């Protein structure tokens, strides 16, 4: 069961001659993110041998739903010296969600050629937009907020799903049910990369937060922003609805980092990590994030 593990915040650092070269904080778990800070003398950071952008002495790494457990971070100093640290992440166990009330048209393979073309076209547009997001090394985000307040969580990240008896891909977001018209806020600062009214997503907004991080809000009744808009954390971007492949009024909130699926609950848990370097890890850090969402 997913609820049995306890999330925690860990700190990993490398020190040389009293100088802290590098520090990494966050939830080392599948679907989690880690935020790193580097000393001025660090010029490059590699995550599993791939270079990661650094901005304002910060960098971000994240782990997919099914991410491997062994990882390595390497920092390169301005004098060319290199230091590496290896670490492990926790494996999550995912439950199974069974939903039998999805309209047939969303489950069965479409036969209508126009619909097939539409779905392909929408999928391509999303892929191209995401590709541009992965190439954006700017940093916009600072902290995070839950997009729908006082909603009821009806679907969690990572669940295996059986829709109308047919196994489909795992649930890659957090579902928050709320009355139609409820305000949806941007989870963090960024630029609106895409909006639309797609067959599966319904009305949606995709936001680029920089560093390869993006968030998507789907099944909206109303969209209040346009492609290219700059939004601040907490700005209204739309309203809850039930458009697209949805069985009731709710927000499906998804997050990805360079193509990896991130658990929205874990990103909320990251606020404390971003805000302050000198933060002393307190008792609250070890409270499972699910409790903070009130269920
Ligand atoms: Zn969902």
Describe it for me?
- The chain is mainly beta and 295 residues long.
- It has two domains: 2-93 and 271-292, Immunoglobulin-like; 96-262, Distorted Sandwich (Glucose Permease (Domain IIA)), CATH 2.70.70.
- Helices cover 12% and strands 41% of the residues.
- It has four helices and 21 strands.
- The strands form four sheets. Strands 10, 13, 14, 15, 16, 17, 18, 19, 20 and 21 form a ten-stranded antiparallel β-sheet that branches.
- Strand 20 (250-257) and strand 21 (260-262) form a beta hairpin.
- The longest helix has 22 residues, at 113-134.
- The protein is elongated.
- Mean pLDDT is 83; it is low at 1-8 and 272-295.
- Residues 155, 171, 173, 175, 252 line the site of zinc ion.
Structure ligands: zinc ion
Mean pLDDT: 83
User: Any low-confidence stretches, pLDDT <50, length ≥5?
Assistant: 1-8, 272-295
Total helices: the number is 4
Distance between the termini: 15 Å
Strand content: 35-45%
What would CATH call the architecture of the largest domain?
Distorted Sandwich
Inertia-based shape: elongated
The oligomeric state is single chain
- Total strands: the figure is 21
- The name of the CATH topology of the largest domain is Glucose Permease (Domain IIA)
How many separate structural domains?
2
Q: Give the C-alpha Rg.
A: 20 Å
Structural class: mainly beta
Major beta-sheet overview: 10 strands, antiparallel
- SSE series: EEEEEEEEEHEEEEEEEEEEEEHHH
